[in-house]
């Protein structure tokens, strides 16, 4: 029987990840009784960071062997550039592994340079792992198709050496492209949506949709102030924020939130929780903070949006808690559609705010008379190659979907980004929705 000491480093990292994950599962019910909500979730976030790092260690060992060990046995090892290269790779991996911990310890009004560097390295790390795996698979396929004779000789060694070089070059290029794309202001996307039973007096009502701003280690007050200026320039009748506004506690990041106080939509500004609000374990304080800025949280509840032209004309705007609240057993929270739509009948148009597209799917299964659902969460995948995973994991990915005869779902690609300050294959967006009466 092989002992733990005899296992390869990758296997040891996998075992460590398994142990952390098992401890997370066991401690969830135990901590619920021993710690208060805030401490329990903080401890679980530390566990999650350790779990992610244990898993990433497997990839980091592969990166090190591909980009350093491969060349240590060649003439390149005697080059003056080899030592600086080893140091650079080590620092790159160290920053990558520190990224998850900046979310716990380095959050302020504006992002720290260290946090930006760490999350940039995390984005580059994802790209590098992808290219190393893809090029390695191509190399193995070539060897298989070419036959055993292709495995030996100088040509084979050159191909092996070229694989990490090409992977690093592609990673560098796409990292720069992703950083430049994410640094641009969000695009303003205007979408016209017909809303069944919307009163004619409310035709052309303008709703601005914001989602997934993720105030935290890499998004601060400056970017939020820019978003608020862009929203004000659009002069919306209603502004809605459909979750993941923040990744930190209200007290820590309060100065960064102040620009939200400048939103002054005449028919109100509304907010529903996303999964990341529950990760902060500080939802109640966030609700109070948002209320101080005249932003109304819709906590499984609804409001009547009355036409400025006729008090008799209105539609129902409802919001549900994010479905992650149930998974985290967050007391007093969880998606409750019946409560959220109490008093909303099919005689009037119904617009629902629900952070996750999965919640939108569940809502339509229960209440197919909902006319429009506004969601976010997916980020449009945010960056290649994560786009594919986001596409397959969500019933609605990004953009406008028609469901049945009289229902539409719109999924925002996000107004900023989470952590990694990069976008590849997606673009941050402020959505200007024009509601059309039938």
UniProtKB/TrEMBL annotation:
The chain crosses the membrane at residues 12-30, 42-64, 85-106, 112-135, 165-183. GO terms for molecular function: hydrolase activity. The keyword Protease does not apply. SUPFAM superfamilies: Metallo-dependent phosphatases. Pfam families: Metallophos. InterPro entries: Calcineurin-like_PHP, Metallo-depent_PP-like, Metallophosphoesterase_sf. This is TMPPE metallophosphoesterase. It comes from Tricholaema leucomelas (pied barbet). The gene is Tmppe.
